[in-house]
Amino acid sequence: MEQQRSSIHGQWSGRLAFILAATGSAVGLGNIWKFPYITGENGGGAFVLVYLLCIALVGLPIMMAEVMLGRRGRQSPINTMMSLAKEEGAHRFWKALGWMGVLAGFLILSYYSVIAGWALSYVSLSLEGAFVSASAEDIGVLFSNLIADPQRLILWHSLFMLMTMVVVARGVRGGLEVAVRYLMPGLGLLLLVMLGYAISSGYFMQGLAFLFDADFSKINSTSILVAMGHAFFTLSLGMGAIMVYGSYLPKGISIAKTSVLVALADTLVALLAGLVIFPLVFANGLEPGAGPGLIFQTLPIAFGQMSGGLFFGSLFFVLLVFAAWSSAISLIEPAVAYLVENRSMKRLTAALICGVATWLVGLATVFSFNIWSDVTLFDKTIFDLLDFVTSNIMLPLGGLMIAIFAVWVMKKESSRQELGLGSVGFSLWYWVTRFVTPVAVLIVFLTSIGLF
Ligand code: PHE
């Protein structure tokens, strides 16, 4: 039978391994760097509420659909979509979903690696003691000096890409599973330590109010699009990362339960990060809407003041790098898996080709913070544009296609079999994915281009 197939790339050792890998993919810069800064830019509470709604009504159903397609297809997303379309008697055009995902993965990783490079450079700054007793201004200068220097940025970006390629070249099980098993809980623990510090800052209530007091006058159709785009980004949905991880998932493991766990863990980390960052923002008189530098301009102030800050600060950025690392490999895995399948390449060669290409595109992001900072299109720098197009257009579009394929194209029996849910659970997933999810995505799309 078709379903007995297993992937040529190997399989996860079990349920826990998949949960860890998928959580490793989901939890990353999106939670700790991006969530606080876009929440700050979009006014807080109401934005967070829309984001949480999108996670529940759009993200979770699509995550289940995406894992399901992967496990059924057992190949890279491009080939998975091709063979599923054939199996279900649908048009070959569906493989375009896989191609769009590969492109989105490249583009996202190209800037993701540059930001992960900032985190790497902060490990070294922290170890040098650069944060010790530094004022908010000192830290601000430290950050602006970093992003103004293309050479330093390229150095760290290159190092991060190299790290990513090494793990990808080693394959699904080699190294990664082990790393994620210990590092993710470590990151969670350290965030709790930081939460303690944020509570003691005296500004915790302001932070809490900013995150959870929903004032809808502060958001507009663009913020809603950004909230939805972020739900896709943070759960790694819509580009095949979760699909390809699903294709390494052994049979018999509940897709629904594991997806719920991953989405919960991801949301928890983001909210925790917000609860740490915003009290510090207010305690130090900083702007919540400071942009992509937000965590890099706030956390070091805290580390510089607290006892053991040198240790905690360095450890924090090390763990942030690991969180980014385990996400980065999933961004490039769909492309690598495809090259191995269709061009019979060794994983090493495939990883090298993808890595070099991504590194090159990443230079555009590096320069967008300095020598090309005035190059803008639609009022956005290259970095902002890359982020906007991938998170807010390509991922939701990919997710929409995944939902449509899973419940409108695929036979109901196929998805029922694959998901392994009880009848109530299955109906709930089926109807939400059939109607609520696609309609929500479409409305947000149409509203943001002013058509609705
Ligand atoms: N989810 C990751 C994060 O939040 C980013 C990511 C997006 C990873 C898309 C894979 C695919 O950092």
What name does the CATH topology carry?
Amino acid/polyamine transporter I
- CATH class placement: Mainly Alpha
For the secondary structure, the number of strands is: 2
Counted up, domains total 1
Report the average pLDDT across residues: 91
Structural class: mainly alpha
H/E series: HHHHHHHHHHHHHHHEEHHH
Q: What would you say the CATH architecture is?
A: Up-down Bundle
Bound molecule types: phenylalanine
Measure the end-to-end span.
46 Å
Instruction: Sum up the overall morphology in one term.
Output: globular
Low-confidence stretches: none
Q: The biggest beta sheet, please?
A: 2 strands, antiparallel
The side-by-side strand order for the widest beta sheet comes to 1-2
Proportion in helices: over 70%
- Rg from Cα: 21 Å
DSSP strand (E) fraction?
under 5%
- DSSP summary: helix tally: 18
Your description of this structure?
This protein is an all-alpha fold. The chain has a single domain (2-448), classed as Amino acid/polyamine transporter I. 76% of the residues lie in helices and 1% in strands. It contains 18 helices and two strands. It has helices at residues 15-26, 29-41, 45-73, 77-87, 95-127, 136-147, 150-170, 176-200, 204-212, 221-234, 241-246, 255-283, 294-305, 309-342, 347-368, 382-409, 412-419, 423-448; strands spanning 376-377, 380-381. Strands 1-2 form a two-stranded antiparallel ribbon. A hairpin with a 2-residue loop joins strand 1 and strand 2. The longest helix is centred in the C-terminal third of the chain and has 34 residues, at 309-342. The N and C termini lie far apart (46 Å). The mean pLDDT is 91. Bound molecules: phenylalanine.
